[in-house]
Design goal:
Order of helices and strands: EHEHEHEEHEEHHHEEE
CATH superfamily: NAD(P)-binding Rossmann-like Domain
Helix content: 25-40%
CATH class: Alpha Beta
CATH topology: Rossmann fold
Number of strands: 10
């Protein structure tokens, strides 16, 4: 069985592990909640924990209520600001939000882990270009190691973990994988014919595009993978394909 040993810095860092969460909608809102749990649990285990920055320039609409983690009083407010303020108040964190589109703003900085919860190919290609152009980082807090991408259609989707830099593996171990392919290396995203579905005007219309539980299902799998990285120090899979129509989860083995 092939194994990837997690970058040592993530397991024993000198600072909190930095994370950019890009997208605060159906999946992103769920992922932020899961990250707050991971952060608290890591802290209790003696790890410095996480420092998360959320990027999203979208506002909450009526159609978001019920499927995303927003309420009526959030309508008209920026999604990233709402979610980060709520997480900070609930968990006592000091995480930050950016009301901008990543990575187009000069307010963007690279982090140890990038998590993308975006709904179009253009954004993924822009993220890929940004991460590879900032591959080295200026210091430990800004050195990129991993890119975790969430993507879905109506009732199915995938979560894929890739490496931005090759991760040095223990010399004494066999069947070790130092480089995990990112989403844009597994699929040729430039050839994807993608139609813009546009914003939904109601929850009923939104549910025609995305199943009520596809986002939290993806979140649980992806964040369980992150948790395994921090607690076990190694992984044998780099994600999974999920199909809610057949209730199946197929791991992406190394």
């Amino acid at each position: 069985m092939n194994t990837h040993y997690v970058a040592p810095y993530l397991l024993n860092p000198t600072h909190r592990i930095t994370i950019n969460l890009i997208g605060a909608g159906g999946t992103g809102s769920q992922v932020l909640q899961a990250l707050s749990k991971i952060d608290y649990a890591l802290y209790k285990l003696g790890h410095p924990g996480l420092f998360v920055t959320v990027y999203d320039n979208d506002i909450v609409t009526e159609a978001n209520i019920g499927r995303q983690l927003f309420c009526q009083s959030d309508i008209g407010l920026n999604k990233a600001n709402v979610l980060v303020s709520r997480a900070n108040a609930f968990m006592g964190t000091d995480w930050e939000s950016r009301n901008v589109l990543f990575p187009e703003s000069t307010d963007c900085t690279p982090t140890n882990i990038t998590i993308s919860c975006v709904d179009n190919v253009k954004s993924r290609l822009a993220i890929a270009d940004y991460l590879r152009s900032h591959r080295q980082g200026n210091n430990d807090r800004m050195k990129p190691y991993y890119w975790l991408d969430f993507g879905n259609q109506t009732d199915r989707g995938q979560v894929i973990l890739g490496t931005i830099n090759k991760i040095k593996q223990p010399n004494e171990e066999d069947n070790k994988i130092e480089n995990l392919k990112c989403i844009d290396e597994i699929y040729n995203l430039s050839e994807v014919n993608e139609e813009d579905s546009g914003p939904s005007c109601s929850l009923a219309e939104a549910l025609q595009k995305q199943d009520l539980f596809i986002n939290p299902a993806l979140c649980q799998i992806g964040c369980a993978l992150l948790w395994k990285m921090f607690t076990d120090g190694s992984i044998n899979t780099q994600g999974a394909y999920i199909n809610l129509n057949t209730l199946s989860v197929n791991p992406i083995k190394l």
